Structures are given as structure tokens and as C-alpha cells.
């Protein structure tokens, strides 16, 4: 049974790399085989799925779609264009803007929201949008690890470590992972200044974007505030955060139906939800539960412990930079889902701080996806948008920006987490 589970798990990973557009089907098919073969008992399927995560993604994506339709992102972009003195600082500003948004909403949603603005700016300036869109994508991936609601991997980490929203800022009397991520983000600014040092053409904007509806912006900020408030309550139901996001999304839909745009806007919003990601996660939760049942996780923990040779610093280093290498080519969601229970067991085996290992994993896995165009869903989305505009992005083109950006941010986060949590 254990051998079969390992073989199926490896096949799933390979197919996810080879067939990136079919990842949801691959994960669900593997989960189904797990159930049929008894690796995951049928009566454990419902409990294996993290419904809180799925509800958070669903509700947030509804709010994001209305936020985009309200033109608030375009309004903010106009302000950025007026403030930035030249193309170099437009690129840096759009990158940081993307990162700030991504700290609170899904990375892919951030790219889908900000990249069109970047494309519009580049068309107006008559320059290639490739560099700007890549920067937007990689910055989105980086900042997604800053808060609980910024990325699926952050939500998964919070569940494994019992963390709430405020724990990402202040954890056990110490600065949280938010500051490690922000330190890495700031360190990338000089990198971008070097990469785009020749882009000194002056810019300005005479256009005035009119925001059509402020309710989505209120709901966007409101659901984040509610998540912060909920984080102060102990022993709350596990689905609390999911319910908050769902309720805010539903309120936004009701507002638009009865007081604004009618049912057409509702269907538009529901169609805009990334159902593939939700199905992918549902399948992965079942698969991970299955391999945990047959004892693979505990064995993997022991293997990694042996690799660390009893040295916590060496183990931490292997986790961070090994995660970078793996996430450069493999989606970090299944990888993080696999490693979280491993590190939980590993911290007990080595008497190490679980937070040190958890945060090291998140730093490496989240930022590692920035090395290649297939390392993260946000990168794939950004490259896809460029392809529609007639710009083909090769691995080399992407890695010219992705590699220095990633290594700089990872190194800063790696050092910060070690000195604070070791």
C-alpha cells in the first residue's frame, strides 16, 4: 500500500509539471485512485479537505472581481504614473504596488488585476511590457507570504502552526515573517534599479480614471479588517476566516444586484472565480491525507533529519534553499502541503523550533517559484497575458529578472528568520 501511494504521488507530480493546464484533473484523479485503493478511506474524504481554505479563496475572488470592475486599480495606477519620474520608477512602483496588494489577496488574482494596468501603461509609453509584467508577477509571489491571507501557502502554514492573522506580524514576542518578507522586498529595489538602469525616459499621465463603485474597495478592506479582529479570539471555529470571506463576498454580490448592476454582474463575478485552483486544492488535501495515513510523512521526516545530520542550522539551510530549487519547477502548493506535517514531526525529532522550520519552508517555497516562468501560478498567468499581447517569454528572458530577484529576497529572509527564531 505504501509503495503504491509513493508511485501514485510521484506520477501525480510529474503529470502536474507536464500538464500544467490539467493540474486539477490530475490531483482529483489521484485522490479518486487513493479512495478506490483504500489508501484514503472513503469516510475520511470530507474531513481531509480544508473547507476553510476553499471558502477563503472563493469569497476573496468574488471581492477581487468586483474590485477590478470598479476601476479602483486603474485609478491607483494613474496616481503612480503621475508620481513616478521615469520608466524605471514606474516599473519599480508597479512591482511594489503588486506586492502590497498580494499581501492581502491571492497572487494570481493580483497579477490578473495589476498586469492589465501595466500593459496599458506600456502601450501608452510605447515600450515592451515584458520586464514590467515579470516584475509584477515575481513581486506578487514574494509578498504573498507576508500575511495569512496573501497566499494559499500562508493559509496552509497558519493551519499547521495554529497561527492567526496578527501572528504573521508578531509571533511569540518576536517580529513575524511579515518583516522577513518586507526586508526581502526592499532588497529587490536596488536589484531592479540595476536591471533597468537604462530606462530613464520621462513619463506622465493626463488621463483621469473615474471609480464607478466604492463598495468593492470597502469590502476588500473590510474583510481584511474582520480577519484581523477575528485573530484575537481564541478557540474560534476552524472555518471562521472562510466564513468571513464568504459573507463579505455575498454582501458584495447582493449590493451589486439590488443597488447597482443587476444579476449580470453576479454571473460575471462567479465565472471569474478560479475553480481549477479550488478543485486542485481539494484533490491535494485528499492525496496528502492519504500519504499521511500510510506513514510516508513520518519516514520522510526521518530522511530529512538524517540529511541535516543533527545540525539545526544545516537542516534549516537545506529546507530553505532546497525549497527554492524544488519550487522553481514544481507548484509550491502541493510541496508545502507535503512538507508541513514533515516539519512538524521533524521539529520534535530534533528539538528545534517548529516556527524556524515552518518559516524557512515558506520563505524558500514561496520565493523559489520566482526562478522560472512555471514555478508559480502567478508567473504562468503573467506570461500568458504577455503571450496574448504577442510577446513570447523564454526561460532565459524570465530568469534574467527572476534569478537575481529571488536569490536576493531569499537570502534576506533566510538570515532574518535564522537570527530571530534560531
UniProtKB/TrEMBL annotation:
Location of the protein in the cell: Cell membrane
A Gene Ontology cellular-component term: plasma membrane
Keyword Membrane attached: yes
The keyword Transmembrane is assigned to this record: yes
Pfam families, A to Z: CitMHS (PF03600)
Ranges that cross the membrane: 26-42, 49-68, 88-115, 175-196, 217-233, 239-258, 279-297, 312-330, 342-361, 367-386, 398-421
GO MF annotations in UniProt: arsenite transmembrane transporter activity
Membrane-related topology note: Multi-pass membrane protein
Keyword tags: Cell membrane, Membrane, Transmembrane, Transmembrane helix, Transport
Domain Citrate transporter-like as annotated: residue spans: 13-363
Family membership noted in the UniProt record: Belongs to the CitM (TC 2.A.11) transporter family.
Protein name: Na+/H+ antiporter NhaD
Source organism per UniProt: Butyrivibrio hungatei
